[in-house]
Structure formats: C-alpha cells, structure tokens
Amino acid sequence: MNKNKSTVNTMLEDEKVKAIRLAITLKGNQLRQQHPWLNFQNALGLSLFLLSSICILLIAWFYINNLFPVYFAIPAIALCGSVLHEIEHDLIHWQYFKHNKPVHHLMMFLVWAFRPTSLNPWIRRRIHLLHHKTSGTASDIEERGIGNGQSFSSLRWLIMLDTFTGNLIKIIVSPSHEKKGLHILKILAANFPFPIVCAICWYSFLAIHLVNSINIFAGLDVFGFGLWFELWFEQQSSYISLLNTVVVIWVAPSYLRSFCLNFISSNMHYYGDVQTLRQQTQVLNAWYFWPFQLFCFNFGSTHSIHHFVVGEPFYIRLLTVSAAHDVMRKQGVRFNDLGTFTRKNRYKQQKQQTNTLELNDEK
Q1: 0.70 cut: is pTM over it?
Q2: If you ran DSSP here, which 8-state letter would residue 224 be given?
Q3: Mutual angle of helices 70-92 and 252-268, in 10-degree steps
Q4: DSSP string covering 141-180, please?
Q5: pLDDT in tens, 239-292
Q6: Alpha-carbon distance 221 to 250, whole Å?
Q7: DSSP summary character for residue 197
Q8: How far is CA 239 from CA 204, 243, 340, in A?
Q9: What ranges do the domains of the chain cover?
C-alpha cells in the first residue's frame, strides 16, 4: 500500500514539474516568435556585458574626479555588477559564445574581474552544475558555501557578506572538520587572486580607519603608539587615499552585491529534506525583499524558473516571470515562505522533541 502510494506521489510530482516546464518553455518560445531579436543570444549577452562594464568604468571615473559622491558610486556600481552576475551565470551554462571559446573565456574573466568577491568562474562552473544535480543536499557545495542550511549565527552573516573569509573561518573553527589543511588550500586556490586581494584591501581599510578613529576620539597614548600611528597615517596618506578609492569603486560594491545575492539565494533554496525538484526552491518576491533584490537583479523572483528550465538566458526569465509564477503557484511551488529563516532552510518543520521532520501538507 505504501509502495503504491509512493508511486502515485512520484507520478503526481513528475506531472507538476512537467506542467511548469511546459508553460515556461512555451512562453519563452512565444516571446522569441513575437520578438525575433531575442534569438540573437550572443549579441544580446555581449551587448549587456559591454553596457554594464562601461557603466562601471564611467561611474568609477566620475567618482575619482569628484563628480559622484561615495553614497552614489557604491550602489550604482553594485547594480551594474548584478547584471554581470547574471551574465556570468549564463556563461557558466554556455549560453553565450559556446562555439567561440576565446570570446567566451574572455567574458568569463572580465565578469569575474568586475565582481572581485566571486569565486573563480571556471571552478564555479563545476560546483554550479553539481548544484543542479544535488540541490538541497549535503553535496550541494555551492549553496552550503553561501550559508544555506546553517543557523543565523554571526558566522552565517559573515559568510553571506564575504564567502572567502567566512568559509575559511568556518573550517578553522570547526572541531570536527577533517583534512583542514587540504580544504583551506582548496579555498585559497578557488579564490585566487581577486577575492583574496579584495579581502586584504577590505580588512586593511577597516583596520586602518578603525584605529585612526579611536586615535582621534579616544587617544592611543600607550607607549607612544598614538603619536607613532598619527605620523605613519600622514606619511602613508597617498597609499591610504588609493586604498579608499579601490574600496569604493571595486571592493565595497562587490560586497554589497554579493551579500544581497547570498542572502536571497541561501534562503530561497531549501536544504536537508528536499525530495523533488519542485521542493528545491521557493520564490522570494514580497515587497520587503526589494532592498536585496535591487542588488541581485531580481534573483529571488526569477531563479526558481531557472531550476525548472535551465537553458534560458536571464533576460528571457525576466520576460516570462509572470507566466512562470502563475503555473508555479498552481503546481504548489512556495512563495515568500518566511519559515525558512527559523527552520535552517529546511522544507518542512522539525519536531523539537524527536528531531524528526513533520509531514505537514505543503502550503
């Protein structure tokens, strides 16, 4: 009886997934027929890449020449970086220039250089393709690497802000982690050079200005340290000014963008008790998520579509989002399930007494 019931449930689940995929695919094909320019996928990807990259360079130039304030430059560059993240994601799935490898790999390198807190994209390609096969399980290195499935401790917040430093600390402080040295070397290799340089710049910037602020307001006169630091700060003013500029136009925008992306992604993916493709993700599109969505190009609203139909570029997902959401709702995909924040991203609630999963009906 249980075996028959399981078979029926599996068949029903497969039908739901097929219905979602069919509706999304049909809408995408319809859009391409109505707007033939959407078929020029390589040209569109390259154009969006060039437009975003040029905007970043222009914003940086305006800031360096004191024409844009810091509070405009950082979020504006982060917004452009969010488009480049979507382009990198499409490149990982070979959506652009699959048969022109030099252009493809050049784009891969440049989208990484403009987003310096990101993992090496060639390494990330293997991890991301594994993510699609193992989403919601312990083997999903990509999502676990941005905090998915962890409690909201200070370490998870750090990982969402700075995946390189956060995961390094996670391994170091873990008492049960085996082969720490090997895993640390793997993290260093996967984050060389940009995330490592980015972290050095960021924490140097924070340390220098923290000590300088304390010296100004509280004084650091122990053993003459305050006077020495003041003299050193003046002597290194040109280098500190350069560091400030690098942080504003390169480091801080990438941390802002990646934090918003990692916050949304790690909480829209479920972890630990996922059994079907339909349970892998939810949609986060409530109004209160928009401060995060703004800097990850509406990722919470569109990424679930990608799990059902992998081979669509990001701009098609943006155009099919309304039709996709309609069929996803009908087939039981969750929307704005805030319980994920208290369940460590599990799909179902855990019973505290037995530490087993409740078999509640889906929302």
Answers
A1: yes
A2: G
A3: 50
A4: HHHHTTTTTS-S-HHHHHHHH-HHHHHHHHHHH-TT-SSH
A5: 999 999 999 999 999 999 999 999 999 999 999 999 999 999 999 999 999 999
A6: 35
A7: H
A8: 12, 6, 45
A9: 2-149+192-337
